[in-house]
């Protein structure tokens, strides 16, 4: 798929899902834009000097300060701007409610010129974000230094670089995970930032069993979804593969959850939750078969790293009781020995 077409599709899906409409989301984007201006002020001064030979004074006054002022103004007035604007009514509509509601357009394109390359990029961006839109931003290719900073640094401060989400451990695993995004079709997420080793939580649909994302442990924020015709097929799919470290079953029906528990095998199991079984020291955590050996947590960890040595100590004075075990054998002695060998609840035995 063309990368631009894929980006536009994801942005439209994000908007239609309603993510950009809440005031909290819009304010978070504006605060991120403000942090971008503060954190990269010197870089922006240097870039404006390279592109237009602007002095630090002129860059601050005509570019950075104006942009920052727009952010501050929008944050201060956002909720008021979003409110319905009631308008005067005539006699015929006195009992009605007449108002103007400010709705976001959806996906908007901002094309910036080169003469004020930061100001004329960010000021309209503030308005578009405050209004609840998704934005495709096109800086001027002529002011290359500013274009480079906007392309490389700005995305880290907006919806896709979240500070509350983890990052991929190293570049090798980042590349491995990003390649998996090509499996199936991205339904949610899909954004990535190589410089920050960030991949957004992503849901893949229309995934085939033979695709790479279904052939290995993912160790990343990617959830592939495969369609099956029913519960029988789902259980059969699980059982024909290696036993997993954990199996999570989600259903409004307790019978469905219990059936999956009864007819599958895994290291651990959660019904209508994930991970939480790991929080109990009273439950063992570990795999089975290909998913691992041994168990952790509390005494289970102690037992895993202990050799369970079988020991029995007997007094020499008890030797006479062993006579029934020695020749000459007889049916009576065999019956007595078998009775003595039966598992019993008592803490002692004759043999």
UniProtKB/TrEMBL annotation:
This is Aldehyde dehydrogenase 3 family member B1. Belongs to the aldehyde dehydrogenase family. The keyword Oxidoreductase applies. The keyword Oxidoreductase applies. One of its GO terms (molecular function) is 3-chloroallyl aldehyde dehydrogenase activity. Coiled coil: none annotated. Keywords: NAD, Oxidoreductase. One of its GO terms (biological process) is aldehyde metabolic process. GO terms for cellular component: cytoplasm. It comes from the Eukaryota. Residues 12-152, 163-307 form the Aldehyde dehydrogenase domain. InterPro entries: Ald_DH/histidinol_DH, Ald_DH_C, Ald_DH_N, Aldehyde_DH_dom, Aldehyde_DH_NAD(P).
């Amino acid at each position: 798929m063309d990368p631009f077409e894929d980006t536009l599709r994801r942005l439209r899906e994000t908007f239609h899902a309603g993510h950009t409409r809440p005031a909290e989301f819009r304010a978070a984007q504006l605060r991120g834009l403000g942090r971008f201006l503060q954190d990269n002020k010197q870089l922006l001064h240097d870039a404006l000097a390279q592109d237009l030979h602007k002095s630090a004074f002129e860059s601050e006054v005509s570019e950075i300060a104006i942009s920052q002022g727009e952010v501050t103004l929008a944050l201060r007035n956002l909720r008021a701007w979003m409110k319905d604007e009631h308008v005067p009514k005539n006699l015929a509509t006195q009992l009605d409610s007449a108002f103007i509601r400010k709705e976001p357009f959806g996906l908007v394109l901002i094309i910036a010129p080169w003469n004020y390359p930061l100001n004329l990029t960010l000021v309209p961006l503030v308005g578009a974000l405050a209004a609840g839109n998704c934005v495709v931003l096109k800086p001027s290719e002529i002011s290359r230094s500013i274009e480079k900073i906007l392309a490389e640094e700005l995305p880290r401060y907006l919806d896709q670089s979240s500070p509350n989400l983890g990052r991929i451990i190293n570049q090798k695993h980042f590349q491995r995970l990003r390649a998996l995004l090509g499996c199936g079709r991205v339904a949610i997420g899909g954004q990535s930032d190589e410089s920050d080793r960030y991949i957004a939580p992503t849901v893949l649909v229309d995934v085939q069993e033979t695709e790479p994302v279904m052939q290995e442990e993912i160790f990343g924020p990617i959830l592939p979804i495969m369609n099956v015709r029913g519960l029988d097929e789902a259980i059969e799919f699980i059982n024909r593969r290696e036993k997993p470290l954990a199996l999570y079953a989600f259903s409004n029906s307790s019978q469905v959850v219990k059936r999956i528990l009864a007819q599958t095998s895994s290291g651990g199991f959660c019904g209508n939750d994930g991970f939480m079984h790991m929080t109990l020291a009273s439950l063992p955590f570990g795999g089975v078969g290909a998913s691992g050996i041994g168990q952790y947590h509390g005494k289970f960890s102690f037992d895993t790293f202990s050799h369970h040595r079988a020991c029995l100590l007997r007094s020499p004075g008890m030797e006479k009781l062993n006579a029934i075990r020695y020749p000459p054998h007889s049916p009576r002695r065999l019956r007595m020995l078998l009775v003595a060998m039966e598992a019993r609840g008592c803490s002692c035995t004759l043999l």
